Fold each of these.
Amino acid sequence: MTAPPLRRLPRRLVVKLGSSLVTDGQGPRARFLADLAGDVGHLRAQGSEVIVVSSGAVALGRGRLGLSRSQRLDQKQAAAATGQPLLMQAWAEAFAPLGLVTAQLLLTAADTEDRRAFLNARGTLAALLKAGAVPVINENDSTATAELRVGDNDRLSARVAQLAGAELLVLLSDVDGLYTADPRLDRDATHIAEVSALTPEIMALAGGSDRSGPGTGGMRTKLEAARIAAAAGCATLIGSGAGERPLARLIGGEARGTHIDAQGNPVRAYKSWIAGTLAPLGTLRIDPGAVKALGDGGSLLPAGVLAVDGAFSRGDCVAVQDGEGREVARGLSRYDAEEAVRLIGAKGREIAGRLGYSRGDALIHRDDLVLG
């Protein structure tokens, strides 16, 4: 059964490709990558922004170095260091005929869990997408320790969807979705086209992680990724990368897959996290003009700041108060407390002159701000 076609194309989506699709273990699967690049180009032409999360570096590196499969961290990291340039070259060649530029971004778990690194990664992604590049993301396997690794690119892709504010996560591999049982072992297994909630019963259908192929994930990791994405307001599509134009057919409802609903939308989920989870570590007191600007949907600019209290770092949550001390908003500061003090009353063009650098005109960008 095919997954239902999307009611509308997502504004931003993350597409994750498993190792078994990207490489045959010896080299990249150039035809598949060209097909996928064509699908991405078609989506971009219709107004969607696409971020690619690609496995394959370790498998390509093993093939180039002649290494056998091993769980030893040093060998895996050596393979990743060798294979990552090969992987990016393959993607660059796939997108070049379309006139699209690829950009590499290597992440670790810390980049998605630490607020400062989170904001940096999100800002980099936003800048790349604005410039028209296709971000190609992988875990930084060549340097990350076991403690710092996300562990598989299914979960990494969900974290990327979360930090990018994506509306859809597409997990492409060698499986075409979720079944009531393992279809390789049970002829009566039934395909599940749509999941409204990831209940314990649904999670139990995934069984254990299948690690027989060149990748490191299985259906369980895909459902765990979908759970992360759903909590961030992002829906998930799980489908097969086999055949021509797999991404376009899956999104169009022409290929078998499993659609997993989101919980709300990305903006609401992100702002709920700011408002309900993070304790403010500082306070910014602002003038009436700034209060009005925030109410009209604007960002908090240094020009409207009257006072700064607390010892907060960049990326920390701060409370925003009016002149009477009433909290009117809270959000994530793009500057630390010391920098914020130096920027009191500054106009955007004056920031670099006062600090010697600039992280943008806003002290708190409207995307990172919740009104009280």
Amino acid sequence: MLSEESDIVDSVIERVSATHFQEWRKDQRVSENIREGRVWLNKPPTEKPPEQHSPSQLYQCHRKIVYRQLNTPEESGDPDGIFWTGSKFEEEVAMPYLQAVVRDLAYVRNSMWVDYTIEGEHGEIRIRGETDPVIVNAESEPLLLTEIKTKQSIVGLSEPNDHHLAQLFAYMEGLSRKWETEIRDGLVIYGDRTTLAIKVFHIQFDADWWYRAVVKWAKTHTEYRLNRRLPPPDPEFNWECNFCSYKHRCGQASDTIFADVGAVGFLPLFDQYPEEKVKKYLEAHEGSKLIPTLAHQFPDLADRFDVHPWRCQRCSVTHAFESVGWDGNTEEPPICPTCIKDGIPVSMVEPDPESQQVVTEDE
């Protein structure tokens, strides 16, 4: 092998890495969002108004959705592989299939927007979001709604998930209002991520369940937000806690020492936050700071953002993160330099989440 070719091989081997791949994926997402006109996805998330609801987040654990709406730091990374597969399945499998089915009968639109309000006890609640593919007529008026989902396996699947029905009904109601018609039929199509097989459920709008379950859920959730109350740890479905990104904060993780923590701040001495979620939280909450655990774990972020100091439990003296030597072992926090001079070894603590809250002029 020539010297130049050997250099190329060495360069490629050096570049291909998990870290480089993550950076490349991030750049890809930024470029794609700009190309698709979704530039807001490249910016820090904003807190959603209490009365606003997304169809995809209806009829789920109230506490989980409150955490999500208030941009609480997530304890796990996004399932990008699942999101990517779902998107590709809709674009490259479901859409072509639906187009082949309707052929000269009708047309298929990628999506349609809904944005409408429902009267509630504390004012209007607003539901807005973007549908999955819709079968339309030549005037682009909706005829039949679809909801496309993927699962690891569809073997044994006998009925749609209730929160998927809630999403479908929210879109049905919105399209019916917008187009002054009755969109009361929909297809929930599940794709198998392993085999690409599908299972289809024909669903008809159930007004009683829509108002009794879903609208009631939305009104209750709005009350939690307006009253600034943390909802109880009471998921709508048994599986929710297993896949929740806030299970430690909530108190549902099997190995957690926390419970019923509010929506703001990082959990002290908790080192399981993914770096991108720490960065997302700090950018979404102007003035927020890292805790020493995360500053030690992510030094690049410590160069960009301020860090809370350590505090001694005995003498209450605070010590800057940079001034304290520590190996990052969360089971053995650093000893207070002041108290150790008196021969009393006392572990220091990080601020609790409530103490990390940034007080604004409005508050």
Amino acid sequence: MSNKVPYDDTARMEKVVSYVADDIDTAPLLLHIGQPEELRMTPPAFRHFLISKAREKPMRIVLPEGSEPRTIAAAQACHEKKIAKCVLLGNRQEILDAAYAQNITLAPDIEIVNPEIVAAKYINPLVQVRKNKGMTPLLAQNELEDNVMLGTLMLYLGEVDGLVSGAIHTTANTVRPAMQVIKTAPGCALVSSAFFMLMPDQVLVYADCAINPEPNAEQLADIAIQTADSALQFGIFPRVAMISYSTGDSGSGEEVDKVRAATALVRSKRPDILVDGPMQYDAASVESVGKQKAPDSPVAGRATVFIFPDLNTGNTTYKAVQRSANVVSVGPMLQGLRKPVNDLSRGASVEDIVYTIALTAIQAQKLNDST
């Protein structure tokens, strides 16, 4: 006998609905009525957020690698999409020739600044900001031959709102001038980095995967707090998993004890952040495993922010996920600086650069709104 109700048998349908209505336990449902649902940030939603938010108030973003082909294409794309006002550093003719080689007609209102012409005016500001480190005019002149340093001075002086570099420079080349000139923001003890990992159905945040080799417990706690705040700024509700090789009290040892201490510090400094650890990656990311290994955790199986115990683990994990699962990563985004400076992977695509420029613009918007 079929247990299906024919589509035209409304009487039996009403009986089924009435039965369910009479017998269902409504108490658990009533507890959640009126409570906001925690939505997952999907990759399309994240991309839309970056572009639409950046468009609200286009910021001036300096690109020190101005003659690099991908950077030129990204600057033109940002102009067309009204994401940001890009400033290209480099020789004008070299930049125009590189654009022509890609069949790009560079918009005439995209600003091009020739470092050879303007570098001299930044010598004294660099001497002043680095005088306690023995900076002299001659040394400053040599330092300013590096476009990244020159762009960083432009940011320091408020001529631009953010800086994006790294398409042909190492992370150290991008971060060093920022640490020397921009320096850490008030209340920040360190600079860290975060990657936005665009998984198939959700955006996750990984940190620190680029800056701090061996953070101690206090530094690891600061990285977790910075990253939770960054996640929230970009529309991702932070559930922070402090990653280790064991979950809860199942393991011991110097490394896992460090993660346990860092977790306690986050809870004491910022009780508003949902954090748990130490926690294995599978317990943090897979709901069935999380329920088994940490059944009472508000984070297990639902983590959106993953804090790795050291750079070796973080960098290896992000690259393994990126390459093995063909996942797009946006970043590294630097956290803890007075003004936004962001790095690129040297394998970055034009699209990667565009999204990093948008991300930098959003950071700059927040900074401008708070001053």
Amino acid sequence: MGEQDSVAVIGAGVVGCAIAWSLTREGWPVMLADPAEPGSGGASFGNAGHLGAELVEPLPSPALLFGFWRQLFVFGGALDLPWRRLPQFAPWAWRFAAAAFRQRANTRQFAPLVRPAAAAWERTLREIGSRALLRRNGHHQVWLTPAGARKAAAEARRMERLGVPTAPASPELLRAVARAAGTDTIAGLEFPDTGHVLDPRGVCEALARAAVARGASVRRLRVLELAPCGDRIELRTDAGTLTVSAAIVCAGVWSAPLLAHFGLRAPLEAVRGYHVELPGHAPLADAPVVYMDDDIVVTPLASRLRATSYMEFSVPEAAPDPRKPARLAATLRRLGYRCDSGNSGWVGPRPVLPDYL
């Protein structure tokens, strides 16, 4: 069979690579298309590596809708909104506001997909011979303020209501985090059913290799446009025009324009995150530590720590905001990590829908 019989999977991030593997596993001919190597661009490269099986509630909520201003970057928080693009951003924000009042109903649809995520990743990585990329030892949330114990108790009650198991963080973990941060004030929770990967890019590469082993092809090309062509799909790319039997769009924040010829309007916004890496730094725990008061996740990856933060609504091609990695590094130093100006940094976008479904 030629490419005209293939299913084109557009985008070789973690979603595209996982779909390519799943299709080849079921016997479909697949072409995986991306201008970059699998897992080398966008959020699939730079994410925290945390498998958030506890995040069973979509983000929009009345509490966030009316209290988001407390989390703004200008007040020391992680949220940065595009005030200069407010007219373009307003329709998305309006949909977000509407979704906030449907959170309970949306959770009923969302939770069954999220809850088994860590176990599903474990099965997949074991099947492709890459189980060593995964740790299934949960994660920790910690608070380092006088209100921490109250917030931890409230979070435990919320998780119980949602059916997410938690336990008090171990005294050893709390001592290690408090000692590093130079404080005696600490509270924390353990989430035993989550997990993390040791190399987010490596996961994409492993999935792509497994798909290729089952007959998939990987093409380094940029898909510029999709158009119907009889009962097939025409891909107009930077390397010419291809015709395939079907196309699955997994191009992240660049997905919406590819759907235009089909009358589909995906209300996607780009949210950029930042990370700083600490090569060779010993972890405080063999699991991600979420500093709840600072909106930072520190994940032990292979041979390094990765600290991630920020929700910056911005066009993907905008220049990085140098204040964000600088603030992230300063906060890490305050928390007791060795982090200087030479530590590597990254910024990249992920796509978000207004209802987060």
